[in-house]
Design brief:
heterotrimer; A alpha+beta (about 300); B alpha+beta (about 775); C alpha+beta (about 160); A: about 300 residues; alpha+beta; Uridine Diphospho-n-acetylenolpyruvylglucosamine Reductase, domain 3; Enolase-like, domain 1; 5-stranded antiparallel beta sheet; 10 helices; B: about 775 residues; Aldehyde Oxidoreductase, domain 4; Aldehyde Oxidoreductase, domain 3; 5-stranded mixed beta sheet; 17 helices; globular
């Protein structure tokens, strides 16, 4: 076990003028230069010496990184510097992307969320990251800026493993775009921690549904599971079932059963895999029931 | 002239705390806030990564050469051992390390960063040794011997180590005829419970600044519950006079026991000795606070209890294996306290108890709010519930029938004093509507009710003293010099209240001399054991009496009246037989002139007093019997209504109720505040907290994975009550209550869980995971 | 390696200019460079809230902010809450409710509550609890703290 540390290690704080010079710098110092947004994950890792940075490159002042634009055809673009509290209090989010706000509320505490950013939370790629599930189910697309210019990657293709994304050295996420969600959609984000609030998710479930005339059940569902696999799982088989069969308690239970069979939780200090499996079933069923009930009323 | 039946107006009044404004503005000074100037050095400590190992060599040469480093120390710099009841600890490890985190070297440098860099340059060569982590394993013959020199350690005469083993204290109780008693029992219950390690989690971590001058005198600024004990322990260890050591302690940001005795404070002293003239500051990081200093010992408790057909408890066999960790200098007394309290607050005629304090290679177990009582009652009160069940008696009625009452002979032979425990049980039972089922909020939820009782005596050596001095000022205000520390419980306020009430002055005339400073403050053994209101209060009243005697002597002479006819009200001396008056401010410094200024009467008044219990007797080594084991017991009860989501295992507390017999609530609101805070700490320990050790390495030394209760985890309803059965030798009848509110909590919640879902877990924390899986298994069995 | 940055910022209304290294946190700058010791160090990991200060009006864990990031910022600490000797309404309420024991968590809680109420003047009790979930207290059990905050909103 390492000696605990009382101060941050030495590093150099870098602030460059443009996104171009920033990405070039990050590319020139792979493994040594880290991008800085809210800092709430990275500074803890620095103090614990889990990573040993030489440079911390601030992105917060860069052009194009602080957007928050909504349009009825393009959807919502959220810049890298937008904090979780800004998301929670946004009327656009509350009205159009409610489960994103619900999930953001589960991250840390009130003060932490004045620094932590959505993009930062997404790029941290924690298997239990609260905002990943909703962002995926809202079909988020990342606007990635690198030394070769900009490119777009759907969030569902972004994650490679715990803490690992497809970002190449020098690439930074400038913003995330969410298309307009399906008409009349509703969603539920349920997360379960050791405390009532402020804990990491032991298991979290995101569900979203919307009326879909073409579907035999009349609805289309989206279901994502967090903290029960190396990366967030979208449970396509359950989604299909709920679109093809009439929605009853029995079909919801079957969907929860599928979710249970798809998850691959591990034992860790927070929970055992046995318990996580219990929670996956219970939370998926409850989320679906809550969601379905909201369509009935 | 005093009417002893009438209490002064201030007693029983919820006066405002006297430290509120400075704490609300952030002005209140804590140790890390003290400003020392440019000659301050920062200390960092190199710690053992092994739970048990020999130190083959240490090379500090490179560290010493690093610019900015002023001192590097290792165990070679100091051979002495330190310890409150048993001197078993080196300040810095010498030949071997016994727990992960044990200090092996220290550095003092001009910045924390440089000190940390220096630590990395220190080379330590270890040879790992076999280690042992469970007390029931460490007690077996053939287990790795953690303290081969146990027989050579200085030890107080009421602690009984067994050299050649890992047992640093074995306390026994033998009362009655157990074998016969089992035969008379209609039912017997036998069970085992494990209560894991937890940590105090004071919001302010340990911090100490030490300075040694060139004549060798030590000044120590530290967040401390025990400045005088620290001074005396340091003096003994270094072979110095206590008068050459000065301990100054400003406000303490939470102690809960972990800032008693001497722990990390000795480290900056050793470093300061090598950097004379520099103050040297050591502040533990939160991670270090979790595992390098004091934790609450884990306990494995094996209970066998039996009662007759009428529900009278006849017999108890209680074996306690306390996981004392690598050093049990303090923990040995926890085992002792567990021993003499072994029956819980019950009248049991036949008792066999063995309380073992056992060395393991875990972190050092030390005093934690409750001093073993939480862990002990977690076992007893769940066992009592099972016993009541088995004999088909109501659990409240069973307890009422068996709890101690005045005149009962306790397990140690001591005779019980009057106590309000029955009344406490009634209050709690009524408040949670015992006997009525509570309807759960939804179909997959279940509700249950549970109750637990407790007792605790202040655990101290037999002769812990308090003293107080009243120093008057020329406007009649008074500096009250005490040694009882303000750690959040309100000690300073209660001190001022008792002094003002006893003296007869408004409360804002009393100023507490602070910060506590062993050069100037009056002696106090330690601020622990929920003893301060009682013992310091008595010392203050003695000082008040002394001051009043001086005052009345002067005024009686000046007025040609009798001292017995005089009193002080609102700071004015008055007579019951005449209408003469004189304000204290007119004479407490300058005296009273004689008629026509033909001389003077009096002079500067200083009141002094002390209190030390003189009636505690030793206990027999083989039987634990003695006339008076402890000073007194505070008793009480707690009840819970819980609601459990049977699918997730999540437990919500619908209602939490406490009632304690405090003798006399000097300040009712402060009593309630202690009960609220203690209950919450108890709830946190019941539902969330556990130090998870794996081969001696703490897996969760941070708030991410050591969860404590937050604003969202409080009960829906919390009610706090107290009863007042006066303490015969307490100030205005008062007795302590600081620790007691977290003692019965785990058991009460455990009992409520059983009532709700029919499962009993092996021990806390009663996490959602454990409950969920246990309920599932239970339902499976039922089918 | 120890490159220094020159920053200017406002602390409790006072303009300041200083040179600081990259790895200095806002918490340490406040406590050490400015000797404003009301803000406390409880965990240095963004978990306990004892270090909460306002940066441009928003409460943040100062242990998780670099000093250099505060160039041009307005900082308010607990010392800034008490204007010229008078107590803020919140502080007064805490005193009336006896909502303080050891006092170590108090500055962080007051700052968080102060800022929260600025943007949410009429919160429910649950909203107050949620806003303070990142402020740990070990002594009081939270009840009086929540009441003290709630009472200032009932005008």
């Amino acid at each position: 076990m390492n000696n605990p540390h009382s101060r941050l290690p030495e590093f150099e704080y870098i602030r460059l003028d443009s996104p171009e010079s920033t990405t070039a710098f990050l590319k020139d110092y792979p493994g040594q230069a880290y991008p800085l947004l809210g800092g709430t994950d990275i500074l803890v890792a620095f103090r614990d010496r889990r990573i040993q940075p030489k440079y911390l490159v601030d992105l917060k002042h860069l052009d194009g990184f602080d957007s928050f634009n909504f349009s009825p055809n393009k959807g919502l673009t959220i810049g890298a510097t937008v904090t979780l509290n800004q998301i929670i209090s946004s009327k656009i989010i509350q009205g159009h992307y409610p489960i994103l706000g619900q999930a953001a509320k589960q991250v840390g505490g009130y003060q932490l969320r004045n620094r932590a950013t959505l993009v930062g939370n997404l790029c941290n790629a924690s298997p239990c990251g609260d905002t990943i599930g909703p962002s995926m189910l809202y079909s988020g697309e990342l606007d990635i800026f690198g030394t070769n210019g900009a490119k777009s990657i759907p969030l569902k293709d972004f994650y490679l493993g715990p803490g690992k994304t497809s970002l190449q050295p020098g690439e930074i996420v400038r913003s995330i775009n969410f298309p307009i969600p399906p008409d009349q959609h509703k969603g539920v984000y349920l997360s379960f921690g050791r405390n009532k609030l402020s804990d990491l998710a032991l298991v979290a479930v995101t569900v979203l549904a919307y009326p879909q005339k073409r579907a035999p059940s009349g609805f289309s569902f989206r279901i994502a599971l967090s903290a029960v696999s190396p990366t967030i799982i979208v449970v396509e088989e359950a989604q299909t079932l709920l679109s093809e069969q009439p929605i009853t308690l029995s079909s919801l239970e079957k969907a929860a059963e599928i979710a249970l069979n798809q998850c691959r939780p591990i034992d860790d200090i927070r929970a055992s895999k046995k318990y996580r499996r219990e929670l996956v079933y219970t939370l998926t069923l409850r989320a679906l029931q809550q969601l379905w009930n909201s369509f009935q009323s | 002239m005093e009417n002893s039946d009438q209490l002064p107006e201030l007693i029983g009044k919820s006066v405002a705390r006297i430290d509120l404004k400075e704490k609300a503005t952030g002005e209140a000074v804590f140790t890390d806030d003290l400003q020392f100037g440019n000659n301050l050095l920062y200390a960092r400590i190199k710690r053992s990564p092994y739970p048990h190992a020999l130190i083959k060599s240490i090379d500090t040469s490179e560290a010493e050469r690093l610019p900015g480093v002023k001192a590097v120390v290792t165990g070679a710099d100091f051979a002495g051992r330190i310890g409150l009841y048993l001197k078993d600890r080196h300040i810095i490890a010498r030949d071997r390390v016994r727990y992960v985190g044990e200090p092996v070297a220290g550095v003092g440098a001009v910045s924390e960063e440089i000190a940390e860099k220096a630590l990395e340059l220190i080379q330590v060569d270890y040879e790992p040794l076999p280690a042992v982590f469970l007390p029931q394993e460490a007690i077996k013959p053939g287990a790795p011997l953690i303290h081969p020199d146990l027989g050579k350690y200085d030890v107080v005469n009421f602690i009984f180590p067994e050299p050649g083993t890992n047992i640093s204290n074995h306390f026994k109780v033998r009362k009655g005829d157990l074998e016969k008693a089992w035969q008379d029992c209609a039912v017997i219950v036998e069970n085992e419970y494990y209560i894991p390690h937890i940590q105090h989690v004071p919001l302010e971590t340990h911090v100490a600044v030490a300075q040694v001058d060139h004549s060798g005198k030590i000044t120590l600024w530290t967040s401390s519950q025990s400045p005088f004990a620290q001074r005396d322990l340091i003096a003994k260890t270094w072979g110095m006079s206590p008068s050459d050591i000065r301990v100054i302690s400003p406000y303490v940001g939470g102690g809960f026991g972990c800032k008693a005795g001497v722990t990390m404070e000795a480290l900056p002293i050793v470093i300061a000795m090598k950097a004379k003239g520099h103050p040297v500051k050591l502040r533990l990081t939160r991670e270090e606070e979790f595992y390098t200093n004091f934790v609450r010992q884990a306990l494995l408790i094996r209970l066998k209890m039996g009662c007759d057909a009428d529900g009278n408890i006849l017999a108890m066999e209680n074996t306690m294996y306390w996981d004392g960790g690598a050093s049990t200098e303090y923990g040995v007394n926890i085992a002792r306290a567990g021993g003499y309290s072994c029956t819980g607050p019950y009248d049991i005629p036949n008792v066999r108890a063995d309380s073992y304090c056992v060395y393991t290679n875990n972190t050092i177990g030390g005093p934690y709010r409750g001093f073993g009582m939480s862990e002990l009652h977690t076992g007893i009160e769940q066992c009592v519930d099972e016993l009541a069940d088995k004999i088909h008696m109501d659990k409240v009625a069973f307890r009422k029938q068996n709890v101690v009452a005045a005149g009962d002979t306790l397990a140690t032979g001591m005779v019980m004093h009057p106590t309000g425990i029955s009344h406490c049980i009634d209050i709690v039972a009524e408040a949670i509507e015992w006997g009525k089922t509570s309807k759960p909020g939804s179909p997959h939820k279940k509700r249950g009710k549970g109750i637990a009782v407790m007792w605790k005596a202040p655990a101290m050596p037999p002769n812990p003293g308090s003293s107080a001095t009243l120093k008057f000022n020329s406007d009649g205000t008074v500096f009250l010099s005490i040694g009882g520390q303000e750690i959040g419980q309100g000690a300073f306020t209660v001190a001022a209240q008792i002094a003002a009430a006893g003296l007869g002055v408004p409360i804002d005339w009393i100023r507490i001399s602070k910060p506590l400073d062993t050069d100037y403050s009056s002696y106090e053994w330690q601020t622990v054991a929920s003893r301060i209101t009682w013992t310091m209060g008595n010392a203050i009243l003695a000082a008040v009496k002394d001051a009043r005697n001086q005052i009345f002597k002067i005024v009686a002479e000046a007025w040609h009246e009798n001292e017995a006819d005089l009193d002080i009200k609102d700071g004015i001396v008055c007579s019951s037989i005449s209408d003469r008056e004189i304000s204290l401010k007119d004479f407490v410094i300058t005296g009273i002139p004689k008629k026509n200024y033909q001389g003077w009467i009096g002079g500067p008044i200083i009141g002094r007093g002390n209190f030390m219990p003189t009636y505690v007797t030793g206990l027999d080594k083989e039987t634990g019997q003695g006339e008076r084991a402890v000073v007194h017991f505070t008793t009480g009860a707690q009840g819970f209504i819980v609601e459990i989501d049977t699918q997730t295992g999540k437990l919500e507390i619908i209602k939490a109720v406490s009632a304690f017999d405090v003798g006399k609530a000097i300040n009712p609101d402060l009593v309630k505040a202690q009960i609220e805070g203690g209950m919450m700490q108890g709830i946190s320990s019941a539902l969330f907290e556990q130090l998870v050790f794996k081969e001696g390495v703490l897996q969760n030394p941070n708030f991410v994975d050591y969860r404590i209760a937050t604003t969202m985890d409080t009960p829906e309803q919390m009610e706090c009550y107290y009863v007042e059965v006066p303490q015969d030798d307490g100030p205005f009848g008062a007795r302590g209550v600081g620790e007691h509110p977290m003692v019965p909590t785990i058991a009460a919640i455990g009992n409520a869980i059983y009532d709700a879902v029919g499962v009993r877990l092996e021990g806390p924390p009663f996490t959602a995971e454990k409950l969920c899986l246990a309920i599932k298994q239970h339902n499976h069995k039922e089918k | 390696m120890k490159k220094k940055h020159t920053i200017t910022l406002t602390v409790n209304g006072y303009k300041e200019e200083l040179e600081i290294p990259s790895n200095l946190t806002l918490l340490h700058m406040i406590r050490e460079n400015f000797a404003l010791t009301g803000t406390k160090n409880g965990c240095e990991a963004g978990e306990c809230g004892a270090c909460t200060v306002l940066v441009n009006g928003k409460p943040v864990n100062s242990c998780m902010v670099l000093a250099v990031e505060c160039d041009g910022a307005e900082i308010m600490t607990i010392e800034g809450l008490t204007e010229s000797g008078g107590l803020d309404q919140l502080q007064q309420s805490f005193i009336e409710h006896n909502a303080i024991q050891c006092g170590f968590c108090t500055p962080g809680i007051l700052i968080t509550a102060f800022a929260f109420l600025q943007s949410n003047p009429h919160p429910s009790e649950t909203e107050i609890r949620e806003a303070l979930v990142g402020n740990l207290c070990r002594c009081t059990g939270y009840e009086r703290i929540i009441q003290a905050v709630l009472d200032t909103t009932l005008e």
